[in-house]
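Course assignment 3, question 2. Fill in each field.
Student: A.L.
Task: Predict the tertiary structure for the chain below.
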Amino acid sequence: MVGILGLGGIGKTSLAKAISNSIAFRFEASCFLPNVSDTSNQVHGLVQLQETLLSKVFKDCRSLKIDSSDTGTIMIKRMLRFKRVLLILDGVDHLTQLETLAGACDWFGKGSRIIITTRDQHLLTTHGVDSTYKMTGLNHRDAFQLFCWHAFKKPKPVEGYEKFVEQIINYAGCLPLALTVLGSDLYGRSESQWKGSMDEYKKIPHQDIQKILQTSYDRLSEDKKNVFLDIACFFNGQLRLDDVTVKILDSFGFCPNFSIPRLREKCLISEFDGRLQMHDLLRDMGREVVRQESPKNPGARSRLFFHKDIREVLEYDIATDRVEAIVIDLPEGDDTICLSPKAFKNMKRLRLFRCHNAHFSEELNCLPNGLRVLDWPNCPLQSMPSKFRGDKLFILRMPRSHIQKIRFEFKNLMVMNFRGCEFLTKISDISKCPNLQQMDFKD
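Answer field:
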């Protein structure tokens, strides 16, 4: 058995088809079962797949009917154990599908080959697959040609469009699905439409790309969905796989020690130079999931990361209790927010607030008591809001801030950073923070 592994749209099915077309003649029979996951989720779907497998291998069994998947399993083992076959199971996402269609190598005759395409490394490991080929994106030359064939119907771009082509290829990350979809979408478009395409694609991903990539997200458990969305919206390329990262995600109750490895196994994140990385298209897919929570009102979304949405929510006081996390990163020269005095009043579920370069026209007089992470370098506040208890805080970072006094009654606090706080003169009893593990008061 051989596994072909990779994220959605990377070309696993195309590769499997190419292999089938080139070597099928070497076997007594061959069978390509597409969309195994989708079919198996239908009523009697597994039985339908078993019937298809046997009818393709034995041409005289086209009218074969199987009454249950258990019966089908017995029939496959009995009828194929002396048959040298090529079987391709495309789009597998659950162990039951493998156990029902290709439970072991000895189900099939000597010299048979079973090829499995999937987005889940753990699935292949659990089933004892002999070897796995992990797919990567196309090289630049092939990506360039694939896109041009769809966008211009020839291997090179029309003169004057070269820079647009490079932008699209960089955005697509050499993912065949994206190159094909975007190339077809831009075919015959004017130069002005090409110019505006990148901003549009980044703002709202193309629906055909979104649909394919979101399949992996939709199949995650709730904890893993939350970790995925937090990385997509806030931490892509920033989080290191260290104790602080685990503390941040663990403070949200997301079980990162389990969730992060599973996301990696499902090809949704990777690790590069010790940092958690996510393909740009997966990032945009996750952000679109958040946008779709409330397309018209950003104040009713779980996560706020786009500077225009954050400005609208804080200035017009439209936040609801659905807001869980805010990370403010405003463009240079546009860093002042006309804060509504009650901007945070309704954010009862806010767990993360990061503010790295924004200035507020009004003093912040309210912070939700449910905050787990408060990360605010250069904070202008001289003291914390009077009604802020902070008893759920795990991470408190306010380096180079104007804070003058701080009361340490944060019983869950694990990490605090007041490095370079030259105005800080009064510190209460740190012994009231029994869980404190890291602190920094250096000049």
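Instructor remarks: DSSP finds 16 helices and 18 strands in the chain. Residues 209-286 form a domain with the Arc Repressor Mutant, subunit A fold (CATH 1.10.10).
Grade: pending
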